[in-house]
């Protein structure tokens, strides 16, 4: 009985292995693909981050004043109001209202070393946050930067 059962089991196992061969093969391939696609995945992340960098750089270079902000931030509101008082039409990106706002903020941190908002750029130059902007306005440096 055991021999018959073993024979049946071996016959079943042989057929089952063939029947399940695609899934057995796909597991090692999936693992291999995970290893192989990992660099590809990292590349996509780098490419994705590069596209964020390109977006940020393009906006900074295309606008006299670019502000990366959050709509609920009181420091951002003060910065935006200060530029409005100076008669400057700033390009404002409300990161909390953008699908990729967190990614853009992460990329800004990589580019500038500043984690917070507002993140202000004038004529392509990184100014900093609200405190830096207010100091530049008070000292007259902002008018010089805007005149460039």
UniProtKB/TrEMBL annotation:
Keywords: Redox-active center, Signal. It comes from the Eukaryota. Residues 1-19 form the signal peptide. GO terms for molecular function: glutathione disulfide oxidoreductase activity. GO terms for cellular component: cytoplasm. InterPro entries: Glutaredoxin, Glutaredoxin_euk/vir, Glutaredoxin_subgr, Thioredoxin-like_sf. PROSITE patterns: GLUTAREDOXIN_2. Pfam families: Glutaredoxin. One of its GO terms (biological process) is cellular response to oxidative stress. Residues 65-127 form the Glutaredoxin domain. NCBIfam families: GRX_euk (TIGR02180). This is Glutaredoxin 3. It comes from Fistulifera solaris (Oleaginous diatom).
């Amino acid at each position: 009985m055991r021999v018959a059962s073993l024979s049946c089991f071996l016959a079943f196992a042989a057929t089952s292995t063939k029947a399940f061969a695609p899934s057995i093969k796909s597991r090692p391939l999936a693992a291999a693909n995970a290893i192989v696609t990992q660099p590809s995945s990292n590349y996509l992340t780098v490419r994705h981050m590069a596209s964020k960098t390109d977006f940020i750089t393009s906006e900074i270079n295309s606008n006299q004043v670019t502000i990366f902000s959050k709509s609920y931030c009181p420091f951002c509101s003060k910065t935006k109001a200060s530029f409005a008082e100076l008669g400057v039409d700033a390009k404002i990106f409300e990161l909390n209202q953008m699908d990729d706002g967190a990614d853009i903020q992460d990329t800004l941190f990589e580019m500038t070393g500043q984690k917070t908002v507002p993140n202000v750029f004038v004529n392509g130059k990184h100014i900093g946050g609200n405190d830096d902007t207010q100091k530049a306005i008070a000292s007259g440096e902002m008018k010089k930067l805007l005149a460039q």
